[in-house]
Amino acid sequence: MDFAIQDSPEQTAFRVEVRAFLDKNVSPDIEHMADPCDMSFEQYQLRRDLGRALGAKGWLYPSMPKEYGGGDLSTEQIGILTDELTRIGLALPPYYDAGGRMGAPTILVWGTEEHKKRFLPPICRGEVRTWQLLTEPGAGSDLAGIKSTAIRDGDHYVVNGQKMYVGSSHGADYSWTILVTDPKGERHKNLSWLMIPMNLPGISVTPMDLLATGGEGGSGCGVKNAVFFDNVRVPAENLVGGENNGWKVATTHLEVEHGGMGRLADRRVVYDFIDLCKKREDGWAIADDPGAREELVNLYIESEITRLFAMRNHWLSHTNQPRSYEGSQYSLRRKLSGLDMGEKMVRIAGPLVLTKDKRWAPLRGSIEYFQRDSITSLHPGATTDIQRVIMARRLGIGGREREKAANLR
User: Fold this and answer.
1) Which sequence positions are flagged as catalytic?
2) Which residues face 198 on adjacent strands?
3) Between 9-25 and 41-56, two packed helices, what is the crossing angle to 10 degrees?
4) Which CATH number do you get for residue 212?
5) What confidence tens digit (pLDDT) does each residue in 139-151 have?
């Protein structure tokens, strides 16, 4: 019995269109490095070129409204587009654009019409790359504890402070940034969001040396950075969501970051690993061993469960269904399953899988990077403990009133 979901005729036609587009626009020179820290500037530019081509069709941010540069695609079409990029080892967007991926939906909810028309089309068309600036040396999981300030001075805000674990390699055009706009104000009621051009005087960026830095689905995260602001004058018109209303704006941003809209990123490395375990060398395959075969089945199931959580959230958010704890549930699942899958692969194949040994050479060291990233990924975007707290609040555990999920559209 075949349980696979089949495309409708309309979906088949769209898949054919997507494949033809990718055949024409994906450069044969694009390389798929295991560790995105190895991405050269030339490779980054090839991905930016592809992003602009996707953006011209409204496919770079396909769920965004057409009037702001998106594609207004259906959930099924977005799934097909993501599948076809995954098939060739790329993601949507094909380069790291965290500020766009999380900032654009937030601006759609909280921005004025002028903000939407000014900031969203360049992001959706791939003309600019945007970082998100949240974490500071003394504020990570406790985001309301940030200290960097933006003080109003006439038609500008003067920004001072430091942000950590920012962005990727090769810079950004804008940074979507949460700051304190009322240093004497009540906690949670003293924050605001600014879209900051990264070419302003007084901004400096310093790369950080870290164990792993992410790079979901071929997006190519690269290194992380520390960003310093020294009396940076940002136009007041770049403040989005209202002064000192930043915590409410943050609820939407964090809902997206935690997976409330789903993350249709792939686990291609898992499937490639399974294929190599089935490959015969000298008449024998790892999958011939009953114990290894059982583990491979469990590995596949684990990966599929995580993928289906993401697809569910994607459908809920894009069809305006009621939501509650699903974003944090997916985030918790993704973090813990990633760690478990990394351990499973080593248990199945042994430590040689972490190398570029002959059998594992086609994986280009991606298992080593996957395992390294699965450890560090327990922390960014709210730790596993924070995700559990959010789920408890959404469920009303402890007799408290159920916390509502943030607006996403």
Assistant:
1) 257
2) none
3) 140
4) 2.40.110.10
5) 888 899 999 999 9
